[in-house]
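Task card 7
Instruction: Convert sequence to structure tokens.
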Amino acid sequence: MAKVKNGDYVQLHYTGRLEDGTVFDTSLESEPLEFLVGGGGIIAGFNDAVIGMEVEGEKLVTLPPEEAYGERRDDLKREFPKSMLGDRQIEVGQELRFASPHGPVTGTVLAIEPDKFLVDFNHPLAGKTLLFQIKVVGITDQPTQQPACACSSSSCGPSSCGPDCGC
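Output:
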């Protein structure tokens, strides 16, 4: 039976949980996640976990932060002048999109002061150990799905957003 290797397109279902059992994302009620193994479009630990798996193979993998979204970094917290908002009202916990030289980025408002506000650009899952239940449902040499964004502001799955996702 064929085993997943770099250069394959793999189709799989997964459920991602935090260490306390909280589900943060799943593909079980949608199309399988598809990605190019070794293509860089997925977190490294998730990519590495599927190598060697067979169709219908299942596994539970635990990814420490360094194999997932990295450790939380204080240098990814930035202050902005409140004047840049104009009349727009914001609140703590709100996600805001910013333009950057590498495309749009999302940050979470941490604090608001009269003249400035603090935004955290760490990924929401940075610093967390992630547990993924994975089941491979297909291995192909060509993609079987249209490219799509597997993440949004409310979804934090193993995929990285591409420039066309609008995330």
